[in-house]
Amino acid sequence: METFSNKLRKDVDPIWQRILFHPYLVEISNATLPIEKFMFYIKQDYSFLIQYARCLGIATAKVQDLETMRTFASLLNSSLTLEMRMLERLGLSLRISIEELKRAEPTPTNLAYNHYMLYVSYSGTVGEAMATMLPCMWSYQEIGERLDKSEKIKEHPIYSEWSSTYSSSEYIDLVKWYKTLVNELATQAGQAERKRMKSHFTISSKYEYMFWNMVYKQEQWPI
Prior knowledge:
Heme Oxygenase, Chain A
C-alpha cells in the first residue's frame, strides 16, 4: 500500500523535477558554479536553518506522548548539528566566520519561506508542521543522491563535501524519520487535516524551488 508521504511526493513531481534540474544544481554538479553564488547560498541556508529548528521546537512542544517527543528532540538536535556544523566548516574554508553566518540578513524569498513555516508550526497541527518541513529534508536527499553520481563534483573539495552530507546514511536515516512521522500523523488525522498537510507540502515544495532560484540570482531587497 502506498504511503501518504509517497503520494505527496508523486503529486509534486513536476515541481521537484524543476528543482533537481535547476541551473544552480546543474552547475554545482559540473563544478562550474561560481564560488560567490555558493557563498551566498551558505549564508542564506544558515539563516534558514535557524528558523527551521525553531519550527521543530514549536512542533515538539505540541506533541502529546513522551516517545514521540524524544524523537522530535532528536530531529531538533540533528537539525542544529549535522547541517549547520557542515555549513560552518565550509564557511570557515571560504573565510566566512560563524559570526558572519549568524548576522546574514535573509532575502525576501528566504524570509517569506521561513515565515510560512513558522505560521503553520504555530497555528497548525503537528502533522501540518511536519508536512510543511518535509520537502526541505527530502528534496535535499534526492539532490545529494543525484550529485553523488557526478564525477566532476568529486574534483571540487567544497562542493563535494556539501553534497556528500545529503547522500550520507546519517542524513538518509533522518529523512526516513521525517517520512515515518508524517505517515503516522496522517493516519491519525481526519480528511480535512490530511488535505491541509498536502497543501502545505505542495507550497513548501514551491518555496524550495524559489529558494534555489533566489540563491542562483543572488536576490537582494529591491529597496
